[in-house]
Amino acid sequence: MAKRHSNEHYIVAIDIGSSKIVVLFAEEGAGGRLEIFGQAQGRSAGVRRGQIVDIEATSMAVRAVAEKAYLSCNTNIGGATINISDPNLRVFNLTTNTHMDNSGRVKEADVKRVIKTAESVKIAKAERHISSVTQHYILDKDPHTGQGVVVRQPIGEEAEMLEVNMHIVVASEQGVKNIESSIELNDIKVLHVVPSSMASSEPYLTQDQKDDGVCLVDIGSGVMDLSVFKNGSIVHSEVIQRGAESVTSDIADAFNTTFEEAERLKLKYGQAQITLPGEDKLIEFQQVNDINDYYLSHQSLIKVIELAYLDLFKLIRNRLNNGKYYRSLKEGFVLVGGGVKIENCDKLMSGLFKKKVRIGHVNTGLIRVNTNSVSSNDDLLAPEYACALGLLLFENDEHGLKERQSVNKAGFIKKLKLKF
């Protein structure tokens, strides 16, 4: 059994997906880089298209994976950061301002005051505010010209007026409660609930990409999570209730086979584009309620997969066009999630969108796997773990004072605050 390191403070992420649950343990290593020292994953239950529809089933599935995670590193889960892929997610960008006192310099109290004003925006009783991200601050904005000094960190700057632009995310109160109940039934404290789209972007996007305009797409089993960045900050988040399982369903329908057999065909033989048109082969498979063996053309399978992925990508394009974000994506798209394991899906999307499309690669300067502690046949830095990795990196205070929640073995919560 793996033994704990001398550092007793660590972070736990629990990614609850439609088909899989992932638990990761990490602690701060050399140079501030996070090191994963424990992990487990298992089948999800009670989740449909990103929403928890059976709290008891989800809670039991979380418990099974949490127990495996404990065995991987001999460490209890006192508290954890959890994801949410709420189809009722609502996002908006807003601006508010405040006057400085007679000192003429921006202080931490001024920043907190203007942020608190922004966060006090009225929302529906059936909603809960789950995230606020500072996009930028403006010093002494002229009310006539709209011009001012744009800064990322205003503390210490001279100004009479401080304005903040923020990205606010709210989710359905019931959706958040279902997540909390599923976790807390296992005596695990929910430290933060983070939108999956925002978490997934943390390990995969560079500041240059965010500055120039980029969209991260996390293709999960039941949903696709989108996050759009431009001018260095997030400007849009969205959940689309379609995912890679719709590709599997299309295969099952096309060849009259079960969902499980269709998933096997997709993962073993799947491609999103035909690379060598002249080459083909027969693939053995079984149809529903039939013991006989059947054969299908590899190219016919690829064609079904291609059409299914095109449907997903067109949904993304329509949503981005509706929000008028599509034209601003100079850096194109970065794809993560289990749905990007299918070969050539990035090329198919690039051909449709006429923009750069890349499969995401983790910034290993931020996070690594401690191979002395973790034994896994899976590559934990692969794109399918994007959300879980991002939950580890996500720091709750997005306004300029970084804040990481750590939990020791006794379950004591300690906040480590670091200034930019």
UniProtKB/TrEMBL annotation:
CDD domains: ASKHA_NBD_FtsA
InterPro entries cross-referenced by the UniProt entry: ATPase_NBD, Cell_div_FtsA, FtsA/MreB, SHS2_FtsA
Keyword Zinc tagged: no
Database matches in Pfam families: FtsA, SHS2_FTSA
Membrane topology: Peripheral membrane protein
Record's GO cellular component terms: cell division site; cytoplasmic side of plasma membrane
Database matches in SMART domains: FtsA
Domain SHS2: 11-204
Signal peptide: none
Chief location of this protein within or outside the cell: membrane
UniProt keyword Cell cycle present: yes
SUPFAM superfamilies from the UniProt entry: Actin-like ATPase domain
Similarity comment: Belongs to the FtsA/MreB family.
PANTHER family assigned to the protein according to its UniProt record, in alphabetical order: CELL DIVISION PROTEIN FTSA, CELL DIVISION PROTEIN FTSA-RELATED
Described purpose of this protein according to its UniProt entry: Cell division protein that is involved in the assembly of the Z ring. May serve as a membrane anchor for the Z ring.
Subunit record text: Self-interacts. Interacts with FtsZ.
Name the record gives this protein: Cell division protein FtsA
Organism: endosymbiont of Bathymodiolus septemdierum str. Myojin knoll
Taxonomic lineage: Bacteria, Pseudomonadati, Pseudomonadota, Gammaproteobacteria, sulfur-oxidizing symbionts
Gene that produces this protein: ftsA
